[in-house]
TrEMBL record:
Coiled coil: none annotated. It is a multi-pass membrane protein. Residues 1-273 form the Acyltransferase domain. It comes from Faecalicoccus acidiformans. Keywords: Acyltransferase, Cell membrane, Membrane, Transferase, Transmembrane, Transmembrane helix. This is Acyltransferase family protein. The keyword Membrane applies. Belongs to the acyltransferase 3 family.
Length: 287
């Protein structure tokens, strides 16, 4: 969603060549470096045997995030980066109408109907998925639309109500079916599933509209300024701190103390470490 806000209008600031250069050096290179780093880390700990490695298995491990599942996010992100130059060509004076159509069509055919059919235990015909809205590209449109276009009070209230309902649907629905089935049910999970779609949009809109109210005495702005340049690095290195908390400090990863306490501590420790890494010339551009 944020990429939609920050990148769809990149043509107003620089060329497409510069756009790809920026993505290459700020995202692609760090991804490759840390993917190889986790490979050596796993070899040192004996989790991977060097005899099992081949050129194909290394490529497989990087592209399919087999060395570190956390990095699955990069592949859809790269696909979105490649799509943005095409989407950015949509004239600005037509974007509101076109984006409304795109969001509406996705909502019906790629999000709402698949969930309804799943609940009715009827196979959903995958040919009905809108092909140009595959993957996670819809979030680019939603982020841009909510940021750039003003909504009337009625529309905002509807989004907030649907957001609350979506969150309750995921929590209560997951609990209900998981209790019945005896395992964590995935029916209401997934980033493109209806519940996530609803509450993520509502939360994004809420932050946009209430930032100044939430920014009590500038505390929120200071906190964002403290962390904003390190968040990508946090994503890249957080795994190692998580391992330390779980394997060395023996935290239960499913406990409340870990999920609500240690997770916050890990984030700020990661910010601190990344700030140090940013002071090392060779490493600073890799995180």
């Amino acid at each position: 969603m944020i990429s939609g806000v920050t990148l769809l209008d990149y043509r107003e600031r620089y060329s497409t060549k510069v756009y790809f250069q920026k993505r290459f050096f700020t995202v692609y290179i760090p991804f490759l470096f840390w993917s190889i780093f986790i490979l050596f880390y796993s070899l040192i700990l004996g989790r991977i045997s060097i005899s099992d490695l081949s050129f194909a298995s290394i490529i497989d491990g990087i592209i399919n995030s087999k060395f570190l599942s956390f990095y699955w996010f990069f592949m859809p992100l790269f696909a979105i980066y490649l799509s943005i130059p095409i989407i950015s060509l949509i004239p600005k004076n037509k974007r509101k109408t076109i984006f409304e159509y795109i969001i509406g069509v996705f909502f019906v055919f790629n999000s709402f109907l698949p969930l309804v059919f799943n609940l009715l235990k009827i196979p959903y015909n995958s040919s009905l998925y809108i092909p140009v809205l595959g993957g996670y590209i819809i979030w680019i449109f939603i982020g841009y639309y909510l940021d750039r276009f003003d909504l009337n009070n009625k529309s905002r209230k509807i989004i907030y109500i649907l957001g609350i309902l979506g969150l309750l649907l995921q929590i209560v629905g997951t609990w209900f079916f998981s209790y019945q089935n005896g395992y964590v049910d995935q029916m209401f999970k997934g980033y493109n599933n209806l519940p996530s779609w609803l509450y993520s949009s509502a939360f994004f809109l809420f932050i946009k509209e209430n930032y100044h109210k939430l920014n009590f005495k500038g505390i929120l702005s200071k906190l964002i300024s403290l962390c904003e340049k390190e968040t990508f690095g946090v994503y890249l290195i957080q795994y190692y701190l998580m391992e330390f908390f779980i394997l060395v400090l023996h935290f239960d990863p499913y406990s409340i103390s870990y999920r609500l306490g240690a997770s916050v501590l890990i984030f700020f420790l990661s910010v601190f470490i990344v700030k140090i890494l940013h002071k090392i010339p060779i490493i600073q551009k890799l995180c």
